[in-house]
Design goal:
The structure is a homodimer of 354-residue chains.
Chain A lengths: L5 H8 L3 H8 L7 H14 L5 H8 L3 E8 L4 H17 L4 E8 L4 H13 L4 E4 L5 H12 L3 E5 L10 E3 L3 H16 L6 E6 L4 H18 L4 E2 L3 E2 L4 H14 L3 E6 L4 H10 L6 E5 L3 H9 L4 E4 L2 H16 L4 E2 H4 L4 E3 L10 E2 L6
Helix pairs in contact in A: 1-2, 1-3, 2-3, 5-13, 6-7, 8-9, 10-11
The structure holds a DNA duplex (16 and 16 nucleotides).
Chain lengths: 354, 354
DNA sequence: ATGAAAGCGCTAACAC
DNA sequence: GTGTTAGCGCTTTCAT
């Protein structure tokens, strides 16, 4: 027996297709009594709407834009790659995905870009940028136009975004603290150096916050030194870290909040400081090498591919006013050590395991 | 300008819709020259096929079955729940998902069930069961019928399955070893007790294997005791563990490979053995409580919801002969400590964060 | 307030 | 080999 369609509802309820459709989409102009008849028929025959057919008839298509910072870091390039991958995956579902790069440190350029999309027809924007008053206003404006706005990877807590896609960075900091504390164990060196960038201000601030919380609560004997601001720049770290290590022999741990990890790895490797426990963020060729060579003890990672796909799903769900499966959209805060380092793997075709 | 359709290809190439369709689906009966013309038109106008419309016209629907063990453990109930959740999510995409429970320890019942599906029309089966010769043969048969077969959570390395959906359990064991070794640090107690069930033989074997590998390689001073076989039964553990702890004061760590964790938690809590480092698997109310109360130091977790959705996506992709995004289907081996314990969350509707 | 009919983009008989 | 035509399940004018 084939699956029931709108025709089945119509004949069961003794009405026409148009009326069924009106009820299905809760459009006005149907008597309450008729609505009841139709609904009765629907539940009686166990009808489930075929969304693909509906969207086809509606000629619905989607246009989503990712706005991410200019810059050539491995992280940002990787982000652009996974967005592009997501784009390919959904293009056959009438979903158009674009990426634009803006100078994140220039609020005016960013806002100009966003305003532009307010006039052209887009359904959703996912933006990764530091929060400024100008950005806040631009987001309010976009949402008034009915455009979905997501904060991507770096939260915008004071803006009227529909959602935040990314890990809880306070929890990330707490996790880093728990790991570094337990890994350091009972060493005599009780100082921890925190190295942060600052470009994605909000996430770095949150991580430091969570880190301090947990060190204080769980490892009161450990002391967290003032943040070394290194602008995610390996050269800055390579220049400043040796002096810090020389001046303070008590440094037994480093929490690298942002980028520039090759600086950390080079300095520690050169000085043979295998005794220093290091926790860093993000899985890149550099941090992977650090992990395998033993300089980095653990990484805290978010799956960028997941974030990109999740952002697309969220924007589509909002456009269609459909519910979201929260569990699927939660970006996991992953702890990676040498033993659970994932293997590489891209698009696999059918032939792989036959 | 609207997005190009088959009609646009047809007029551009000067052929009919039917011919375009033949080329698009690489069906025979078209001259090579015509094929070239059509393909030229396709790439010239940048055509992308609307898969929803195609599936509608094909009247394609899917029928997938999950075959999982009988039993009322939290783990199995949770598995059934997430499969049901996945079922709801895809029902409007003409995908029918069913779950059947079989006595996994009775190879004949299992095989009878699978044979049944070989006769009725199913497109894919995801099976969680221990590998037996009978199962191996049944799978070979199903695949000859053109049915996709997946190994779910517990691998079937010697069977002709299309794919395995779940974590790498050897890597899970290695990860457990690395964590327990580092967490134990320089305590004087150097013995580790391994508690395993046996129902899902394969995964437990793999975990123990990986565990031993890494302890030997990284922590040669630690000694792993013979496995306590407890059949995932908290009562068995509650009975036998106290004696083992009393007989051997050197036990400083416990790796709980399977279920029955409430037994471990109760015994350790009652005896005030906060000094014992414990690593367990799976996030359940029991293990969550163990983590929060400090008895369990870390959990190794796989997201069952992800596994269920992934299985459905894989079976559909195989049915449609479409490629799979490997990165999305990799079930992550997650390390959970108190600090990165995820919050609860089910279906969220639009109103949540406005 | 309700219905008839055309059509979304694609596929599949069946005809030539 | 190639073309014509009638749908797939749903939405949407336009009548009534």
């Amino acid at each position: 027996m084939p699956r029931p369609t709108v025709h089945d509802i119509a004949s069961k309820a003794g009405v026409s297709l148009a009326t069924v459709d009106r009820v299905l989409n809760s459009r006005p102009g149907v008597r309450a009594k008729t609505i009841d008849k139709v609904n009765a028929a629907i539940s009686e025959i166990g009808y489930v709407r075929d969304v693909a057919a509906a969207n086809l008839a509606r000629q619905r298509d989607y246009r989503f834009v990712f706005v991410i910072p200019k810059g050539e870091s491995w992280f940002l390039r990787q982000l652009e790659n996974v967005i592009d991958e997501a784009r390919h995956r959904v293009i056959s579902q009438r979903i158009q995905v674009e990426t634009v790069r803006v100078d994140a440190d220039n609020p005016h350029a960013l806002v100009a870009m966003l305003d532009h999309f307010g006039y052209h027809r887009v359904d959703g924007i996912a933006v990764m940028a530091p929060e400024t008053p100008q950005l806040r206003d631009a987001i309010t404006h976009l949402r008034q136009e009915g455009i979905t706005v997501l904060a991507l990877l770096s939260d915008l807590p004071n803006s009227a975004v529909d959602d935040f896609v990314g890990i809880d960075n306070v929890a990330a900091g707490r996790t880093a603290a728990a790991l570094i504390g337990r890994f350091m164990g009972e060493t005599s060196a009780r100082d921890i150096l925190v190295i942060a960038g600052s470009m994605l201000a909000r996430d770095h601030i949150d991580r430091r916050l969570g880190f301090d919380q947990t060190i204080q609560a769980m490892f009161p004997k450990l002391r967290v030194l003032p943040t070394l601001e290194a602008w995610n720049d390996a050269n800055v770290i390579a220049k400043r870290l040796p002096a810090l290590l020389a001046a303070n022999r008590q440094i037994g741990g480093i929490y690298s909040v942002g980028g520039g990890n090759s600086g950390v790895i080079d300095v520690l490797a050169k000085q043979g400081r295998g005794d220093v426990t290091v926790i860093a963020h993000d899985l890149t060729p550099i941090t992977q090498h650090g992990l395998l060579s033993g300089v980095i003890d653990a990484l805290i990672v978010q799956d960028l591919g997941h974030a990109a796909r999740s952002a697309v799903r969220l924007m589509r769900a909002r456009r269609d006013r459909e519910p979201v499966l929260q569990a699927q959209e939660r970006i996991r805060l992953e702890i990676i050590i040498k033993e659970n380092l994932p293997e590489e793997g891209g698009q696999i075709h059918l032939e792989e395991r036959q």
